[in-house]
Design goal:
Structural class: alpha+beta
Distance between the termini: 84 Å
Shape: rod-shaped
Strand content: 5-15%
Largest sheet: 5 strands, mixed, barrel
Strand order of the largest sheet: 1-2-3-5-4
Oligomer: single chain
Radius of gyration: 27 Å
Low-confidence stretches: 128-146
Number of helices: 6
Number of strands: 5
Order of helices and strands: HHHHHHEEEEE
Length: 209
């Protein structure tokens, strides 16, 4: 079926795109079935029965490693190994270096193209355990940095404890952990919030007005 070398690019692109897409979005197995079909066509067109089984296993091993990295490890190491494994599987299965190059490009483009599904379809819940995809807001029961800590910038309060340089400040009756800008600040001194970086509140000592 793959009489033209460039067709390998299309087959591996679509196969990889739908297989990884099935992992990213909830399509009830439809994308997985389509992707499996394309990859089966690719390997069966070039390989004998024995090698077909071997390379299919190697290819899907790469996919499994990417899933494990995304769901459990989440440091990128297994994902890189998995991507390399799938690339090696399709590259070595090609009958010549031109078709092999096309197939490798197809896998890379397919992996990138699968990310487009996230903009259209519902993301799988397994990935929400790894990455916080919802914006934390008061409506959802959270106090985000923008809604609380960021509002402290330029406000004045007092040191609730000695700051050497970390301590506690009190602003508008609320206590916050803060750090001074290199100064040692004594309990009761007046301070001003000069910046907020995440939950890190930086203050400086000011004269009482």
């Amino acid at each position: 079926m793959l009489s033209y070398d460039w067709v390998a690019l299309i087959i591996t692109l679509l196969g990889t795109m739908f297989l990884i897409g099935e992992l990213l979005v909830n399509m009830r197995g439809l994308f997985g079935l389509i992707g499996f079909g394309f990859i089966t066509v690719y390997f069966s067109s070039y390989l004998s029965t024995d090698m077909f089984i071997v390379m299919m296993l190697v290819y899907f091993l790469g996919i499994v490693l990417m899933v494990i990295d995304g769901k459990i490890v989440n440091d990128g190491t297994l994902a890189v190994i998995g991507a390399a494994t799938t690339i090696i599987a399709v590259g070595l299965s090609a009958p010549n270096w031109v078709a092999g190059l096309y197939s490798v490009i197809g896998v890379i483009l397919g992996g990138a193209a699968s990310l487009l599904f996230l903009k259209v379809f519902k993301r799988r819940k397994m990935w929400t355990k790894v990455t916080l995809v919802d914006q934390l807001s008061s409506e959802m029961g959270y106090n985000s940095m923008k809604e609380s800590y960021q509002s402290l910038v330029d406000l004045q309060g007092e040191a609730a404890t000695d700051m050497r340089p970390v301590g506690t400040i009190k602003v508008n009756g609320e206590e916050y952990s803060a750090i001074s800008n290199g100064q040692w600040i004594t309990k009761g001194d007046h301070v001003k919030v000069i910046s907020v970086d995440g939950t890190r509140i930086l203050v400086k000592k000011v004269m009482k007005e």
